[in-house]
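Students often ask why we bother encoding 3D structure as a string. The short answer is that it lets us treat folding as translation between two languages. Here is a chain of 172 residues written in the first language.
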Amino acid sequence: MVFPPKATADDAMLQWFALAPADPASNSTISFNVTATVSLRNPNMYRAIEYGALAMTFSFNGTRFDDSASVPGFKHKARKTATQSMRVSSVGKPIKLTRPRVGEFRAENDTGSFGVEMRLDTVLQYKGRSHPTSRRRNRRSGQRPPTDRPPSPSVRRGAGEARPVPRLLLLW
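And here it is in the second language, the structure alphabet:
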């Protein structure tokens, strides 16, 4: 059985978040600076996970920011935790907001608490452990056994097979 990785946000800080409203509201610009540290735990006992590039994007009230951060792909060993830190900043980028969402930004700005969504996107593959004991040699003749026999059960299980999984979504 193969389990998906477990993602947790260890630290996330919105250091700067400013909106320059315009008329019409769709011409508004946004400036922000975000740092986030994410831990990924591989709960599998025998399967490593190979990640493609890990991209982090942000959105405010359903409107996605244009800028994102990415970390190059990496290999995640079985039963280990990998920690990735990313920083995204933008100054004066256009954002498509409706007039009510500009008002919502002002209300959240007054309270000092913003609802910003962080999304992690990646493609990952599970890599099985190779089993050297599944390759047996015929000790009497020093040759490999005939190939007309079916492979052993450990080989049929698909050691080393790659399976794509759905994208990860982490909200805080």
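Translate back mentally: The beta strands are 6-20, 29-41, 48-51, 54-60, 63-71, 74-76, 81-94, 116-121, 124-127, 169-170. Keep this in mind for the problem set.
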